[in-house]
Amino acid sequence: MSLKVLRYVPLLWLVTALRAEVDFAHDVLPILEKHCAECHTNGKYKGSFSMDTRAAMVGSESVVVGDAGGSDFIDRLLTDDPDDRMPQKADRLADDEIAALRKWIDEGVAWEEGFTFRKNVWKSPVRPRQVIPPEGNAAPVDRIVRAYFRERKVTPPAPLGDAAFARRAYLDLIGVLPTPEELGAFASDRAPDKRGRLVDALLARDEDYAAHWMTFWNDLLRNDYAGTGYIDGGRKQITGWLYSALLENKPYDDFVRELIDASPATEGFIRGIKWRGNVNASQVQEVQFAQNISQVFLGENMKCASCHDSFINDWKLADAYGLAAIIADRPLQMHHCDKPTGEMAKAKWLFPEIGDIDPGAGKKERLRQAAALMTSKDNGRFARTIVNRIWQRLMGRGLVEPVDIMGNRPWSEDLLDYVAWEFAEGGYDLKRLLAMIVKTRTYQSTCVEPDSGPAEDYVFRGPVSKRMTAEQFVDAVWALTGTGPGKPDAKISAPPAPRAVRASLVQSTLLMRALGRPNREQVVTTRPAELSTLQALELNNGKEFVALLERGAKGLDASDPDGLVRGLYQRTLCRPPDLGELRIGREILKSGPGGHGAVDLLWALLMLPEFQIVQ
Questions:
Q1: What are the extents of the domains in the chain?
Q2: Which of 183, 265, 329, 358 could staple 241 via S-S, CB 3.0–4.6 A?
C-alpha cells in the first residue's frame, strides 16, 4: 500500500487491520487442553470451575470478559502462592502462553461456535426415523410438544390474539405487514378455521412469498454478492433461477439437485468466489464447495476441517478435501494449515453408510452422484437440516442450536424426526412445511423470554421474538410512506418478473446494510439479533431514512389528527392506539413546524420495539 493511499485510510481501521487477533482454535485451545482441561472439563470441575463451554467460563467469577487484569483466572497463573497457583502440581505456563491467554480475555474470549470440552455421547443419526405422535385431536406437532411440556413440567404459553397472529403470520410467511383492511376482514371472520385459511391464502400469494424468501436463500447461497468474485469472473448470480424456483415452489430435493448437479443458470453457487491474488488453501473454489454444501444442506461445519482435523466435531481434513475433490477439474493436493501435504484428495461422500462417490468418474458424473446422495430419501440429515432452519426462522430458535451444527442434540428428537419425515414424505414441499408449523397451537402462542442458560440445558417453553430483517423493515417503511424504487434489480430475468418491488429484489443500500443485510461473502444462516451502533445512528439521522420519512409525511392528511394517528397505529402496530397514545400522537403532530410533526410521528412509531420485533 502506497503512502499516498495510506493518507486516506482512517487510522482506527488501519490499527484494527494490522492487529493480529488471537485465534481460539490455534492460539488458545492447545493451551487449555494442555494445562487446564484435565481438571476443569467434562464432568471434572475442581474448585467448581468449569471450562466446558464459553458460557460456563464467563459465567464464573474467574473470567471477566475484556479484562484480563481483573480476571482471577490470570491471577492464578501468575501468583506464587502454592495454594492458589494454577496449574497445581505442574510447571508454570510459559510467558508466551500466559500472554496469549491475557490477550484472548482482553479481546472478548472468542470461542469456536459449537465447541465444547464435554464429550458428546449422543450421536446424530443420518438415516430418517418415522415417529408416531401421541394420540389426540390436536395437530401432530402440538401433541409431541404437549408431551414434552408434561414431561418437563412446563406451563404452555398463552395463545395469540387474532391481530397478533395475523401480524406474525404475514411477516413470517410473506414478509409484509397486513393492511388495516386485511386485518379488519380477518377480525370479523367468525369461522373456526379462519387461521388455517389465512395461512393458505398467504402462501398462495406467490410473488410476495418468493420476494420474501429470496432474503433467506440469498443469505444461505451467497447470492446477490457484488464483490471481487464477479470482477474476476469467478462466479455468477443465480437470482433469476432462484426467484423462479421460489415462485413455482420447486420441491426442495429438486431445488438442491439443480444447485449441485448444476446448469449454467445455477452453477454460481457451487463455483464459489474466485478471490483476487493468492489466498490460503481453505479459500480456493473447490474447498468453498465443500464448506458450502456441507454447511447449507447438512448443517455441518467443515471450515475447521478444511485446514486441519476439526476441534469442534469429528470431521477430518480428508473429509473436507473428499468433498472438494468432487468438483475439482484436476488432481487436488491436500493442505494442512496451508502447508501442502503431498497427498492428493480422493472424492468421497461424508456419510458412506448411504452411498459413496466414484473417484474415478468424471467431474460431471461426480456432481450428479453428489446431488443424488444429498437428496436421497436415506439421507435423513438433508430433511432435518432444512426443517431446523425453517423452525428457527419461524420460532426464533432452532430445534438444534447452533443451526449449522446438526451434530448437536435437538431439544426434541421426536419432533425434529417427525417433521423431517413428513416433509420428505410430502414431496419436500417448502410451503407445506411452513403451513405444518404455522397452523399449530405451538406457533400460535405468545412469545416467551429467551433461555439465557447453557445451550445443553435448554428447555423449550414457546416461541421467542425476532427482529425484523433489514428487508422487512424497509418494505414496511416503503409501504407506510408510499416510497421505494420503481423497478426490481435487473438480475431478475423476465419472464417471470415480479410486479411488486420489494427490498430483497433491489441492490442493497446503506440503510439495509446498517440494518444487517450482509455482503454475502460467506454463507449467512442467522443474522445478528442485537442493535448495533451503526444501526442506531442510521435510524436516528441517516440521510436515506430521513428522506423516506419526509417524502412519506408529505402524503399524509393531517386535517384529521385523530384519524391520522389511528391509521398509522393500525398500519404499523396492527392495533388502535390507546387514549394516552392518541393524546401523545396529537401533541407530536402539533409540535413539528411546517408539517414536520408528521415526520416525527412516523419516526417515533418506527422506532418502537413493538414495530421492529416480530412477536
A1: 21-106, 138-204+382-465, 210-374, 470-614
A2: 265
